[in-house]
Amino acid sequence: MPPDTRMFRSPPLTFPNIPALDGLRAVAACLVLIHHGSYGRLPGGWIGVDLFFALSGYLITGILAAELSRTGRIRFGRFYIRRVLRLLPALIATVLLAGLLWPITPFKSPTPSWLEAAAAALFYVANLVPAESLGSLSHCWSLAIEEHFYLLWPPILAVAWRHGGLRLAIVLAVSGMAAVAREIALKFQENI
């Protein structure tokens, strides 16, 4: 009879719903809306974007880590379908509304078509296109970055978990954040 190893296993991680974090994400989104609504006269938009990204990364990592802890794997299909169902309907509505308003908006660029801007937004590559060519859909750059994170982070986390457990996953996350912070700092210095 094999020995009972249950007492040596750590309990599965759980990731509770924390309403305060949802509230902070709402505050972050409001900062962005206020910044855009004031046509840039009121600062705070970048703080809102950074806060939203940080909270989203934390929440997604917590959910994935809890699933890894419970099951030893990530159900990628389920994860990606949930992201699509959560974000794509609102994006489609936004793109359609922008298309209706495209002829009268003061923010459109003279060169691209609405279809080009819509395709960049809907395929989550708006961050790879010059913002001025996206017209009223230029704000979709941040959603594209978030989608790239959703696409890349779960497999990286799963591999790190499989080969080094939670510690390696944390080291990768912190290293990635440090690399991004360094790039942001360099870009900021270029603009001074």
From TrEMBL:
Keywords for the protein's UniProt record, in alphabetical order: Acyltransferase, Membrane, Transferase, Transmembrane, Transmembrane helix
Which stretches are transmembrane? 45-66, 87-105, 160-181
Residues making up the signal peptide according to the UniProt record: none
Gene Ontology MF term list: acyltransferase activity, transferring groups other than amino-acyl groups
Pfam families per the record? Acyl_transf_3
User: From which domain of life does this come?
Assistant: Bacteria
Gene Ontology CC entries for this record = membrane
Any single biological process term in GO: lipopolysaccharide biosynthetic process
Query: Which residue range or ranges hold the Acyltransferase domain?
Result: 19-178
- Please give the name of this protein: Acyltransferase
Species whose genome carries this gene: Telmatocola sphagniphila
